[in-house]
Write a structure and sequence with these properties.
The protein has 388 residues and is mostly beta strands. The chain has a single domain, classed as Porin (Beta Barrel). It has helices at residues 7-24, 127-130, 143-147; strands at residues 36-52, 64-80, 84-92, 99-108, 115-122, 152-161, 165-173, 186-194, 202-214, 219-220, 223-224, 235-236, 240-256, 259-272, 279-291, 298-300, 303-305, 315-327, 338-351, 354-365, 376-387.
Length: 388
C-alpha cells in the first residue's frame, strides 16, 4: 500500500496531472485551443568535417579525417488565437539515421505572472545550452555544456521574461538518454537571470540554475569526445546504478559593440545506490568574441539570438575559448582526471541564413602515466550551416 504513494509513482503521474489541471480548470474553461492563425516553417542543415589526431582518435597512430551531416532539422511554429502557440521540430538522428522528435510543445501566454509551456523541450539550464546551436559561436559547445546537458524532456514549465530579468521553474519526467540507461523519476529544474547593467549597444547577464533529479536506480555515465563530434569518447565513466543527481550552475556575460565575453561554471553530483560510490564532476569555460566587421552578438530573454549582418558583404567574427572538466569523486575509476580544451575560431555570416565556421582545437589530459603516447590531441573542424 505504501508503495502506491512512493516518489517513483508520483514521478510518473505528476506531469500528466498538472497538464490536465491547466486544461480542465474552470478558470480556463472559456479558453479553447483554436484554429491556427499563422504557420512558420523553418529548417536547418549543418555539414561538418573534422581532422584530428592524438586523444581525439581511438586505436590509431594516424591522423583521421571524417565528414558528416551533423544536423538536419525541420520545424513548424504555429501562432494561435487567444495567446496559444505550438512547435514541432523533427530531426534526422545522426547516429541511427532515423527521424526523431526534438521539440513538441504547447505554450499558453494568457496569464500575467507567467507563461506556461507543456510538452517536450529543453530544460532551462545553462546559457550556452539554451542558446540554439544555430546561434553558438563555436562548432561544438564547451566540454561543460556537452557533458552536463539534460537535453529535452517531457514536462511543464512556468516562465516569465521581463525587461531586466527572467525566471523558469519546471517539472519534468527524467527520460532515457545517452547518459541514462532507463527512465528515471521526477526532476525539478529552475533558472533565474538578470541584466544588472544597462549598456548602450551592448548587454549584461548574470544567471543561476539548479536541478534535482531522481534517477531511481538507472545506470548513469558521463561521456566526452573532447569537443570533436566524430572523435571517440576519451572520457567514459563506469555505469553507476544511481539514486539521484544534483546539479547547479552560474553564468556571466557582458557585451559592448563588437566585443563580448561569456563564462559559466557547473558542478554535478550523482549519488549511487551504494553511498560510497558517488560521481562528482565540475566544469567551466570562458570565451571571447570580437567582430572585425561592424556587427555584434544579439542577446534577448536570457540567451543569445541570431547575428544580423549590417552589411551586404556579411559579418566576420573571431572567437577564443578555454574549457575544463575535472573529476572530483572520492574514488578512482577513470584514467582521465581532467580534460582541458583550447579553441580558436573564425565565423563568417553571409546573412542570417548562411554561416561558415572554422575551429582549431587543442585537447590535453591530466594523467601522462596512463597513456603516454596520447597526452594531447589537435583537431581542425569546419562547418557549413544553411537555414531554410
Amino acid at each position: 500500500m505504501l508503495n502506491c504513494f512512493s516518489w517513483e509513482n508520483m514521478a510518473k503521474n505528476s506531469i500528466r496531472a498538472l497538464i490536465f489541471f491547466l486544461l480542465s480548470n474552470p478558470a480556463l474553461a472559456e479558453i479553447n485551443i483554436p484554429n491556427v492563425s499563422e504557420l512558420e516553417m523553418t529548417g536547418r542543415i549543418n555539414i561538418d568535417s573534422d581532422y584530428f589526431d592524438g586523444l581525439f582518435r581511438e586505436g590509431s597512430n594516424n591522423s583521421i579525417m571524417k565528414g558528416q551531416l551533423r544536423r538536419a532539422r525541420f520545424a513548424i511554429n504555429a501562432d494561435m488565437f487567444n495567446e496559444w502557440s505550438a512547435k514541432l521540430q523533427l530531426a534526422i538522428n545522426e547516429n541511427k539515421k532515423s527521424l526523431i522528435v526534438k521539440d513538441f510543445y504547447l505554450v499558453y501566454e494568457g496569464w500575467n505572472f507567467a507563461d506556461v509551456k507543456m510538452g517536450k523541450f529543453k530544460e532551462p539550464f545553462g546559457l550556452e545550452r539554451l542558446t540554439s546551436s544555430k546561434n553558438t559561436v563555436f562548432i561544438e559547445r564547451s566540454l561543460m555544456s556537452n557533458v552536463f546537458s539534460f537535453g529535452r524532456n517531457t514536462g511543464i514549465n512556468f516562465n516569465r521574461n521581463a525587461d531586466w530579468y527572467t525566471w523558469n521553474v519546471g517539472l519534468y519526467q527524467v527520460s532515457k538518454s545517452p547518459r541514462l540507461r532507463q527512465d528515471g523519476g521526477l526532476a525539478i529544474t529552475q533558472r533565474f537571470t538578470l541584466s544588472p547593467l544597462k549598456i548602450g549597444n551592448g548587454f549584461s547577464h548574470l544567471g543561476l540554475a539548479y536541478s534535482k533529479r531522481e534517477l531511481d536506480g538507472a545506470g548513469y555515465e558521463l561521456k566526452s569526445n573532447g569537443g570533436v563530434f566524430s572523435g571517440f569518447n576519451m572520457l567514459n565513466t563506469p555505469i553507476l546504478e544511481s539514486d539521484s543527481l544534483t546539479q547547479w550552475g552560474s553564468e556571466v556575460a557582458f557585451g559592448k559593440d563588437k566585443w563580448s565575453i561569456q563564462a559559466e561554471y557547473q558542478a554535478q553530483e550523482v549519488t549511487g545506490i551504494e553511498n560510497s560510490l558517488n560521481i562528482e564532476y565540475r566544469s567551466y569555460y570562458t570565451h571571447v568574441s570580437y567582430f572585425i566587421s561592424n556587427d555584434k552578438r544579439r542577446y534577448k530573454d536570457g540567451r543569445f539570438v541570431s547575428v544580423r549582418p549590417s552589411s551586404s558583404s556579411g559579418a566576420l567574427e573571431l572567437t577564443a575559448r578555454y574549457s575544463v572538466i575535472e573529476n572530483q569523486s572520492n574514488w578512482q575509476f577513470d584514467e582521465l582526471d581532467k580534460l582541458s580544451n583550447k579553441t580558436i575560431g573564425i565565423n563568417y555570416y553571409l546573412n542570417r541564413d548562411f554561416k561558415l565556421m572554422l575551429n582549431i582545437l587543442e585537447l590535453k589530459s591530466s594523467l601522462s602515466e596512463a597513456i603516454p603516447d596520447q597526452l594531447s590531441g589537435q583537431a581542425l573542424s569546419l562547418r557549413i550551416q544553411v537555414n531554410l
